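Lab notebook page, bench 4
Experiment: in silico fold of construct C2
Operator: M.H.
Input chain length: 113 residues
Purpose: comparison with the prior construct
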Amino acid sequence: MAIDTTALDGLRGLACLHIMLFHYLGHMTYGAVDLNGSLELSLFFLISGFSLTLGYGKEDQQWNLTTFFRNRAIRLIPCYYLSNMLGFLGLPGPGDNRVTWQRTMKTLTMTNT
């Protein structure tokens, strides 16, 4: 039985757009504009988890934890490094957001906290 997730994909896209606007406007107005982006983040994660469960939870498919994590790493790690490189090449933010060698290594090795 196939489930139509078109409406959920649209709602997830709207939540993603709202989160992006929250970050952009909050940064550009130094916090004067608050769009409650944290509420949309919960909705985005909830819908994304549901969509992933539908994709990986098919009855005719053999499910393997190792394959799952390998496929997720293949899909996510290139985007992770690309976004970090673009952020590294961009302008550093105000305050204590300077780009340093130590921060760069922590980000590239995924050990930043």
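Observations: The mean pLDDT is 79. Helices lie at 6-28, 37-56, 65-89, 101-108.
Next step: discuss at group meeting.
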